[in-house]
User: Which sequence fits this backbone?
């Protein structure tokens, strides 16, 4: 059973999600919060598997709450941001704060339920529309400083750099294994080392890092 907390300042949104999850056998709502501060306290107390987090809320917003949840060394809760198209400007901040996924509220209900399961399993996902916004964000940024890129690249092996590049391009573990002519188990081992060396919480953050240091160039 996947235990979920709902974080949104709109009771109607929380109610809709609660009803949706109540009809899903493998999910249950462990608690609800109306702002970021309540969310942090709730997660610390209940230790749910997933927190479904809105961004724009009074007081502490979802980005700060996500950061605080992930800063807790005892927290295993993964944050799935569920927001509106108008919040695209906050996508990068939320992912940098440690969100494991980012979906928009007008997506099909099945997609949202599947997203909860994906994040709970330790994977990451980003809505296609959000991915486009991220690419636009990276495209508008200046080239990374040579010293920044060198500091990261010097800390990993050539093979790990290849794997990081392919992760940044969006390849799955199987596709990475095929591309590099290695086993899937070996690809996973390289990823595990990248998570440790780069202090990355999940695959989303490896993608961000690959763009940030210039291993993957956004389309122009």
Assistant:
């Amino acid at each position: 059973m996947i235990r979920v907390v709902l974080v949104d300042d709109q009771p109607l949104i929380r109610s809709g999600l609660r009803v949706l999850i109540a009809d899903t056998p493998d999910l249950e709502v462990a608690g609800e919060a109306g702002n970021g501060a309540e969310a942090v306290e709730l997660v610390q107390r209940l230790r749910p598997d997933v927190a479904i987090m809105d961004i724009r809320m009074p007081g502490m917003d979802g980005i700060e709450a996500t950061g605080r949840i992930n800063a807790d060394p005892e927290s295993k809760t993964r944050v799935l941001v569920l927001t509106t198209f108008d919040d695209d400007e906050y996508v990068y901040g939320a992912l940098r704060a440690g969100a494991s996924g980012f979906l928009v509220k007008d997506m099909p209900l099945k997609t949202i339920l599947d997203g909860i399961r994906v994040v709970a399993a330790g994977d990451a996902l980003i809505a296609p529309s959000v991915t486009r916004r991220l690419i636009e964000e990276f495209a508008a940024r200046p080239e990374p400083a040579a010293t920044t890129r060198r500091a990261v690249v010097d800390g990993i092996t050539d093979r790990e750099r290849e794997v990081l590049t392919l992760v940044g391009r969006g390849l799955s573990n199987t596709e990475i294994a095929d591309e590099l002519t290695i086993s899937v188990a070996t690809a996973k081992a390289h990823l595990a080392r990248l998570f440790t060396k780069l202090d990355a919480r999940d695959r989303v953050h490896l993608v961000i890092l690959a763009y940030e240091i210039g291993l993957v160039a956004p389309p122009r």
About this structure: The chain has a mean pLDDT of 84.
